[in-house]
Design a protein that fits this description.
Blueprint: H1 2-16, H2 20-23, E1 24-26, E2 39-45, E3 55-60, E4 65-71, E5 75-81, E6 84-91, E7 95-102, E8 107-115, E9 122-128, H3 141-149, E10 151-155, H4 157-182, H5 186-191, E11 193-194
Parallel strand pairs: 2-8, 5-10, 7-11
Antiparallel strand pairs: 1-10, 2-5, 3-4, 3-6, 6-7, 8-9
Helix pairs in contact: 1-4
């Protein structure tokens, strides 16, 4: 199983290495806002750590996934989501998850956070809360720095093609790591949850 996991990691990383510029492009115009009847979730990666490695983000479901985009260092992407409960996923060497409870008309934020892994390509999704006592929060000077130092990006047809080509491997990665997520303690899942009132 571990050999399979490493092989998938090499395959996905090879597909992403050096292709950020062709798959995702900088957005032009005004910053995005929630569309009517939708909630907006912003996935941002302000850290320079592991800058050569990309990660892809999804709104994941039992039978299918919505591909949101590829988040490189110093970028952020906005996702227009249906209100309600969601499970978001980031994939690189690993897969990791974040729960979100979303209200229409609000904007939510999450960090795409790199960390050390076997191939130096592990990522987590970390909720950014709207309260000053949280480690990651939208009221902090760090949050203003993150927003100012990251560029808005948008998906391209080439990125959609990349996803279609790699969808089976991404699903295999999800199922592999979903067992760990399903068995995680309630406390750990609570730490990786965006409550509805964290929206701005």
């Amino acid at each position: 199983m571990r050999l399979i996991r490493w092989s998938l990691g090499i395959l996905l990383l090879a597909g992403l290495a050096g292709c950020q510029s062709s798959l995702m492009v900088k957005s032009t115009g005004a910053a995005p806002t929630p569309e009517p009847g939708k909630a907006m979730v912003v996935f941002m990666r302000p850290s320079m750590f592991g800058g050569a490695i990309q990660s892809s983000v999804y709104d994941t479901h039992a039978k299918s996934d919505n591909f949101i985009g590829i988040v490189s260092t110093k970028t952020k992407i906005a996702y227009q989501a249906e209100p309600g409960d969601h499970l978001f996923m980031v994939v690189a060497e690993n897969a990791d998850f974040m729960i979100a409870h979303l209200d229409a008309g609000k904007t939510y934020y999450a960090l795409v956070s790199p960390r050390m892994g076997v191939w130096k390509a592990r990522f987590s999704l970390l909720p950014i809360h709207h309260r000053s006592d949280a480690k990651y929060n939208s009221l902090s000077p760090e949050f203003r720095d993150w927003m100012g130092s990251t560029d808005w990006i948008t998906i391209t047809p080439a990125a959609q093609q990349w996803y279609q080509t790699n969808a089976a491997d991404i699903t295999a990665r999800k199922l592999d790591y979903m067992h760990k997520w399903d068995n995680a303690e309630a406390r750990q899942k609570a730490e990786l949850t965006l409550p509805a009132d964290d929206g701005i």
